[in-house]
Amino acid sequence: MSENSIDAYLNDVGKLRQYYEANSREFRIKEVSDGDLYQFITWLSELGMLPNSQARVISGLKSFFGFLVLEQVIDQDPSAELESPKLSRKLPDVLNILEINALLAGIDASKPEGMRSKAIVEVLYGCGLRVTELINLRISDLFATEGYIRVTGKGNKERIVPIGYTALKYLDIYLNEVRVHQAIKTGNEDIIFLNRLGTRLSRISVFTMIKALADQIGLQKSISPHTFRHSFATHLVEGGADLRAVQEMLGHSSITTTEVYTHLDKDYLRGIITDFHPRT
């Protein structure tokens, strides 16, 4: 798994340890019962943890205790009957095209970091990438002539994503007019987006850049790099794109994850009925 996933699982187990410490109990992994876990989830809820976050912790603990059974550290899995809280499906925040254009117009492309930022936003919105996929993008993943990029997603799964003319244009300017003048640290020669030290850009750097850009133009919405991914998918679906194609481009393993975007536009659903139902 990725380092971020490993950290998340470790944090889940760490929260269980904190629960024991908060209740002045010794954390003995072989003595954890299903009752302890239910009380732990109640404790998290009383602390104000939202259902989505609780579900994330439960998933991590189930994986952990499943591993312990597999390794014969424990005989029975105390998390076997532990159920996740019912989750409401929150619709993702999206930007309209005017807001995206305003963000892009707010970037000072005369500065090297400005041109990099412009290329980043164009690729995020133009290809629907996750921020981790963006910072790991390599020059060898770029097939400009064919109009595709190779993306390594969750679980190291590779997918091919089309990249449009505009994103390619700014990516080319960044690579050939900015990046080419940088001193690049060994091991980062193939990485596309670099920081001032000539190493791979960090996730937090991209988050900070996006937040600063939103503040600069006075955008009222709270946005992150993921907002461009949501906007990419929403605008495709609103434009009538096939849901399976959007699923493939986003790298969703299940179509259910992609289906959330159909809820963002009632006209899309109405159009499906009009076009395909025999009684309309």
- Strand proportion, as a percent range, falls in under 5%
Number of strands: 3
- Large-scale geometry: globular
Assign the CATH topology of the largest domain.
hpI Integrase, Chain A
- Secondary structural class: mainly alpha
Work out the radius of gyration. 23 Å
For the record, what is the CATH homologous superfamily label of the largest domain? Intergrase catalytic core
Number of domains: 2
Order of helices and strands: HHHHHHEEEHHHHHH
Number of helices: 12
- The CATH architecture of the largest domain: Orthogonal Bundle
Largest sheet: 3 strands, antiparallel
CATH class of the largest domain: Mainly Alpha
End-to-end distance: 49 Å
Descriptive notes:
The chain has 280 residues and is mainly α. It has 2 domains: 3-70, no CATH class; 97-271, hpI Integrase, Chain A. Helix content is 53%, strand content 4%. The chain has 12 helices and 3 strands. The chain has a 3-stranded antiparallel β-sheet with strand order 1-2-3. Helix 1 (3-22) crosses helix 3, helix 5 packs antiparallel against helix 7 and helix 5 crosses helix 9. The termini are far apart. The relative contact order is 0.10.
